[in-house]
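Class prep. Sample record?

___
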Amino acid sequence: MKILYINSLYPPLVKGGAELSLQQIVEGMQTLGHEAVIASLHPEDTPITDKVNDVRVIRVPLKNSYWPYKDIKTSSLSRLSWHIRDRKNTAMGQTLRQILQKERPDLVSCHNLAGWSISVWDQAQAAGIPVVQVLHDFYLLCPNSNMNRGGTPCEKQCLSCQALRSGHTKASNKVSAVVGISQSILNRFLSNGYFAKAKKHVIYNIRNAADAPSGRKRNPGQKLQVGYLGTISKVKGVEWLIHQFQGMDIPASLKIAGTGNEGTIAALRGLAKNSDVEFTGYVQPQQFLEQIDVLVVPSLWEEPLGMVAIEALAAAIPVVTSGKGGLSESVKHEINGLICPPEQPESLAQALICLFQDAELYNRLSAAAPASVSHFLDRDRLISEYDQVYRSVSSSTAFTT
């Protein structure tokens, strides 16, 4: 089977975990004998074709007002204009039409479509090629892909998102199968009326991990090394974590690793003044995890999956989390971690104090953690599940509009 994968970026151009997960899927499909081709965007003015680990990658120019994947400030008007065009970018659709005519794939596997837009669904339908849409983020519901405004999570689409995503629900009927990287993200789209006629699947992304340790041991009264790893922002719950940490009267330190808006980080540094809080900047995840006893993932928004929690659990580190979105699908309360609802803000400090005071509980959670996420580390599982989805739709060319 020849599969054309469509994503905004492809390594070595990487913005987040979606590109790395896609690379694992693509290379895995090739090991099964499928032919994989990537269509992605790049900031140059002309198309190029290269190879990444024997996978052919077609990189085409983005036909919009600016390249969004670099750290430049744009005006609100410029961003609005970009998103209006990206609602249904027919110029990018024409680019894909040319690729489809040349490559003649048996199936199109869509991933993050920012820049491409849902015009790709139109072109695949016109060519009679079935489409599998994989949901890595909320782009198809929210132009910013994250369902939050000003650091506050959105419980539903705001008016601007409704306007910029009008028609998307009906257009999603052109998709033969939809895959959520968690049940949570799939449910979010289904509850908004998307993909009503598509076959529905959940396939968890994977992470590579070192050999699972047997577990970590804590002694009663031992100083608790608390860690946070990820984007430093309000919606990620970092402010909540700092407030709760400062209210604890136990021997503990907090390391905050990651990057974010400079103004936000400066404000959080000020909030953490006079307490045992260290901002380490960017670090290699495995090196960071070796330095902590517990990872806190206090996200206030619905994480599509939350791979950082899975990486910690694979390293036998218990996770304290809000449980928002896909986080509750890997972190199980009192099995491999503790869940603290943001609606009960004091629950976060209480959970950390509990792990400090109850070494037996900590040791039990740590020992159970690696096996609890073995499913998320199984590359053969990931590839087999995608293969089954692709085969189930590859012969389907009938679409309903």
Notes: The domain at 224-377 is CATH 3.40.50.2000 (Rossmann fold). The mean pLDDT is 94. The chain is about 35% helix and 20% strand.
